[in-house]
Structures are given as C-alpha cells and as structure tokens.
Amino acid sequence: MRVFVADHPLIAHKLTVLRDTQTTQPTFRALTEELVTLLAYEATREVSVSPVTIQTPVTQATGVRLSHPRPLVVPILRAGLGMLEGMVTLLPTAEVGFLGMVRNEETLQPVTYAERLPDDLSDRTCFVLDPMLATGGSLAAAIQFLFDRGAQDVTAICILAAPEGLDALEKATAGRHVKLVLGAVDERLNEHGYIVPGLGDAGDRLYGTI
Ligand code: PRP
Ligand code: URA
C-alpha cells in the first residue's frame, strides 16, 4: 500500500475549519467537497490516458484523453457521499458505484447494507471515497468488494486517518495495488473507536443528525 499525506497550507487551513466544532453544517459540506477536489488532484496522478490528435484553431496538435473504460468512483455511504461532488468536479466522466456500510458502534465491525457496483472491474481504475479511516474495517471491506469484482488498481481518498487504521489496512491489502491519499494522519483512536483529535462523526456533521 502506498500512502500519500497532503502537505499543503490550503488543505491544512480547510482541515482546521472542518475539525472545529463551531463549523456549521453547510460550511462543513462545502469544505468536504473542496478538500476532496484538492486531494483528488494527487489521487488521479496516475489515471490512465491515451494519446489523441486534435485540431486547435491554429494547427493540429497531439494530447491525451482519459482512457476507456472510464474510471469508477465509489463513495461509501453515508459519509462518503459528501465527497462525491468534490471528486466528480475533477472526473466528470467517471462512472459512480455505491457501497452502503455502517460501523456497529459496539463491535466496531462494518455492516454492508447496500451495494451497486459494476460486475466486472478488471480493467477499471477505482477510486473509493470515505472521509474517515478509523479502525480501517470499513475501508478494508470496501476494497475487498472491489478486489472480488476483479479490480487490480484501487485508490482510496480519506480526509483523516488514525495510525491504527493504517496498520490494519496495510495488513488487509498486503500484496495488492492500493494507493491511499489522506488529508492528515491523526494521533490515535479513543476507546470508542473515534479518531483523536478528529472531527467527530463525519456522517452526522454532513447530514445534520446532530
Ligand atoms: C464512518 C466513516 C467510515 C467508518 C470508519 O461511517 O464514514 O465509513 O465510520 O470507521 P472504521 O474505519 O472504524 O470502519 P459510519 O459507520 O459512522 O456510517 P455513516 O457514514 O453512515 O455515518
Ligand atoms: N467515524 C467517524 O465518522 N468519525 C470517527 O472519528 C471514526 C469513525
């Protein structure tokens, strides 16, 4: 697994506002999208392109276009849905698949309640979106879904990660081609499996259930 942690003052600034308990729901949503667009720039660095020839108003020129089949973007519901617009801003032609997962807050194990993915992912570049990598259970299960459909190239974008989740994901994806792009790596998990200092419950803050 290759891990890229953002190192940019604009991302650090937006993350600080995102973490702040005073930040309102509309601002939290807008910042989530903006952060994902910035992280997507790094996440798509190796996206597959093919050479093309085009006509400019002045002359013929060579360039590149995104290759076929189109990339697949998979937000993990619910909180990952708040990242989708920020991602498709950069990849407007991507196909979108969905995985619904919720963590059992007693056992911290992920439960899958929805799945809408293409059957064959063998030639697809896949991007998984989930703001929080805490124990790593949800993201490991989501990436395994993609491997089971034949995916060989998976990039995940998370806004925050805990070291414990990174270790778990490293073990779960050993020997596979997985790239992880993160806004920041925080200190640790607390006794309830929340990221410290973190930002609280990302789904609740995005969708207003608090
Ligand atoms: C959150 C988050 C991740 C998961 C991370 O989702 O969006 O999917 O927890 O925890 P883990 O790394 O320990 O698995 P949650 O289960 O709260 O569901 P929600 O998105 O519907 O709020
Ligand atoms: N899920 C969240 O939304 N936040 C955390 O800190 C951990 C899991």
Automatic annotation (TrEMBL):
NCBIfam families: PRK00129.1, upp. Pfam families: UPRTase. It catalyses: UMP + diphosphate = 5-phospho-alpha-D-ribose 1-diphosphate + uracil. Belongs to the UPRTase family. This is Uracil phosphoribosyltransferase. Its cofactor is Mg(2+). The keyword DNA repair does not apply. Pathway: Pyrimidine metabolism; UMP biosynthesis via salvage pathway; UMP from uracil: step 1/1. Allosterically activated by GTP. Its EC number is 2.4.2.9. InterPro entries: PRTase-like, PRTase_dom, Upp_B, UPRT, UPRTase/APRTase. Gene3D superfamilies: 3.40.50.2020. HAMAP family: Upp_B. PANTHER family: ADENINE PHOSPHORIBOSYLTRANSFERASE (PTHR32315), URACIL PHOSPHORIBOSYLTRANSFERASE, CHLOROPLASTIC (PTHR32315:SF4). It is an enzyme of class 2 (transferase). It comes from Klugiella xanthotipulae. Keywords: Allosteric enzyme, Glycosyltransferase, GTP-binding, Magnesium, Nucleotide-binding, Transferase. GO terms for biological process: UMP salvage; uracil salvage. It comes from the Bacteria. Catalyzes the conversion of uracil and 5-phospho-alpha-D-ribose 1-diphosphate (PRPP) to UMP and diphosphate. GO terms for cellular component: cytoplasm. Uracil binds at I195, G200, D201, A202. The keyword Glycosyltransferase applies. Binds 1 Mg(2+) ion per subunit. The magnesium is bound as Mg-PRPP. SUPFAM superfamilies: PRTase-like (SSF53271). Residues 5-209 form the Phosphoribosyltransferase domain. GO terms for molecular function: GTP binding; magnesium ion binding; uracil phosphoribosyltransferase activity.
